[in-house]
Amino acid sequence: xxxAFLIIAVLANLFPARAEWKNRFMPEILVQxxxxxxxxxxxxxxxxxxxxxxxxFFSKESSANLAHLCIGSTREHRxxxxxxxxxxxxYFGCILGNFYINFGAGLLAGRKKGISPDLFxxxxxxxxxxxxxxxNSGNPLYCFQGIAAxxxxxxxxxxxxxxxxxxxxxxYADSGxxxxxxxxxxxxxxxxxxxxxxxxxxxxxxNDYGTSLDLKFGDHFSAQGYFIYSDIRRNNKTILxxxxxxxxxxxxxxxxxxLGLFAQYRDDYIVVFVELGMPHRVVLYEGGRNKxxxxxxxxxxxxxxxxxxxxxxxxxxxxxxxxxPYSSGQGYAENAWMAELSVSPFKGLxxxxxxxxxxxxxxxxxxTYLPHARREQGRVQYRLPxxxxxxxxxxxxxxxxxxxxxxxxxxxxxxxxxxxxxxLLSLSGKVQKxxxxxxxxxxxxxxxxxxxxxxxxxLYYSRFFISxxxxxxxxxxPYQGTITPGSFIKVSSNLAVGKITARYKEAVFxxxxxxxxxxxxxxxxxxEFFGKCLL
Length: 535
Known about the structure:
Elements: H1 2-14, H2 19-24, E1 28-39, E2 46-57, E3 62-71, E4 76-85, E5 92-101, E6 132-134, E7 144-155, E8 158-173, H3 187-192, E9 202-217, E10 221-234, E11 237-238, E12 241-244, E13 251-266, E14 270-285, E15 290-294, E16 297-305, E17 309-318, E18 334-343, E19 349-360, E20 372-384, E21 388-401, E22 404-419, E23 423-434, E24 439-451, E25 455-465, E26 472-474, E27 487-489, E28 493-504, E29 507-518, E30 521-534
Antiparallel strand pairs: 1-2, 1-30, 2-3, 3-4, 4-5, 5-6, 5-7, 7-8, 8-9, 9-10, 10-11, 10-13, 12-13, 13-14, 14-15, 14-16, 16-17, 17-18, 18-19, 19-20, 20-21, 21-22, 22-23, 23-24, 24-25, 25-28, 26-27, 28-29, 29-30
């Protein structure tokens, strides 16, 4: 750790001392630490972990970063680090180390986003960010490792930028019964193999590279074309994954590559975008014959924002052979649509409705049915200026399962009210009906207040009434950046939560205690804390 601090200090002195930097920004150090129970980078596994971060800022967009992650259950240590120099020149920027990529709206290549397990709140994942973003999570699982650079040039009202990246990631694969040059493991399972164990025994390297060309015309129009390529190597020889020897001719995947086009129009009221992605899998058959399996994916969206009316339409369609391991959302073949409409006929009143549908259109390995979900929702909200609000949400949900369709109805009233600007009172609840089951319900209360203008105390209590497997999803005051903000309550029980946050200048410290119990019997409890300080 001392060596890491020394390296960061040396880098601070090596960066160019541009005069404009001195005038607008002084180097700063951000130190952050936390202990929490959450999902690690969208891998659908909730774990307890410690995380420490240190960031040395040279400017607003240039920094040196180091993050350490210690997983409590296994005592496994993970690290990410990078040097981001994004504004040392108006024509050039680069990242060296761990980074995320984001092309277009994330259809083929995008920064991973958390997909809520609660279908009442799930949304279609769209990711619009810069082509490259530093990874500061401490978990190298879903980020790239190498170098990414952007060259930019502007003339008149047109801006042109060319971005490229190269990544190499050391992983372990399962050789299985086929030796070291082929494996029946999927691409994603090899990405997960960051540690050697009884299943992942063979050291391999995932090589990725890609490029994008961006055009921006004035303040409203932008377009992008991009390309990405991936393969897996061992001792500089390509290995096959998804290997299958049960067909008339054995075969395996040799490489993956994708091309995409993205276009967007944006002004003060309207945003319209469309992205076409064309993924390709290169399959090698016994005897040396190559076959490329290609398909398409399409995402699109329209948003109209006005003080009186808000309308949003977003969709995703794909062919049955669509596949992308680096998609920001679901990387398999699916059709999904989402629509939202809200109207404010007069000040304070908001009426809203929404629709969400997702349907998998091609089964995965060993999958015998195609899951789907359909949600309809409505909302009525009245807001009191500087006082709070009261609202009612209602949902109708259909969820396709292996044995038929489950149907749900949910009513969710809630209110918040500020007293004298320093005390917050909250009251909410849920009533949920599942087809063939009795009702489940919850009642949630909370109070929050501020002491000495820098300490905030939040106290919550919830009572759950659960019928059979009609579970309720509960979210109580999650920390910012939490990937899985809640959990399913599966038995009738009580939940008490306390959270204290102290803020002073550039320092923040927070501790949260959560306890689930039945009568005098404790079921589970957890403590989380978070702190950061800008030096």
